[in-house]
TrEMBL record:
Gene3D superfamilies: LURP1-related. This is Scramblase. One of its GO terms (cellular component) is plasma membrane. InterPro entries: LOR_sf (IPR038595), Scramblase (IPR005552), Tubby-like_C (IPR025659).
């Protein structure tokens, strides 16, 4: 696992554009303002691009790479066509399957199970229907939190509603694969739950 995933705080900025089909994000260290990761959807087919501008956007497949600014893959996230509930696969830097997530049926505010390499549940992502506020939890233990509210040192990086903060808690040990899965899940909240 890449060392950058052992941090506990990340600022995520979505690339915005009027006619933007691909989902692209930059991930920053909030203390320094330095870009530490980038999330890119480079291999988007023509048909998928066209569907991204329709009501079928939420059903389209995706294949996203989270990589260092120098281009080294850290995580890859993939989903095929989704007709009803999404199932997303997550791969490490060597394209080895490390787990994924499966959207929960009838969740208010959005939720999915975060799954390990054997597809057993590691935790759940739970959202509130009233806003953009998500927690990764299992048995009352909070592993991470994602929100669009931030008041720390990197506050000046927040210039639009398409930015948010991921905070991983010390309940996840360093180099634990759950850190990779949580980072991957955060990149997919918009595509799986909020589109």
């Amino acid at each position: 696992m890449h060392d950058v995933l052992n941090r506990n705080l990340y600022l995520v900025k979505e690339h915005v554009g009027m006619f933007k089909a691909a989902n692209n994000f930059d991930i920053y260290d909030p203390e320094t303002g330095e870009m530490i990761l980038e999330c890119r959807e480079d291999n988007l087919g023509t048909f998928t691009k066209m569907l991204r501008f329709t009501d079928y956007k939420r059903m389209t497949p995706f294949d996203i790479q989270i990589r260092t600014p120098s281009g080294e893959q850290v995580i890859r996230i993939s989903r095929g066509v989704s007709l009803f509930l999404s199932t997303v696969a997550v791969f490490d830097k060597n394209d080895t399957y490390i787990g994924g997530f499966k959207e929960k049926f009838f969740s208010i505010g959005g939720a999915f199970h975060v799954l390990g390499p054997d597809d057993s549940p590691l935790c759940e992502l739970k959202g509130k229907w009233t806003g953009w506020n998500f927690h990764f939890m299992k048995d009352g233990v909070d592993f991470a939190h994602v929100s669009k509210k931030w008041s720390g040192m990197g506050k000046e990086l927040f210039t639009s509603a398409d930015n948010y903060v991921l905070e991983m808690f010390d309940t996840i040990p360093q180099d634990n694969p759950l850190r990779q899965l949580i980072m991957a899940a955060v990149m997919c909240i918009d595509m799986v739950l909020k589109e």
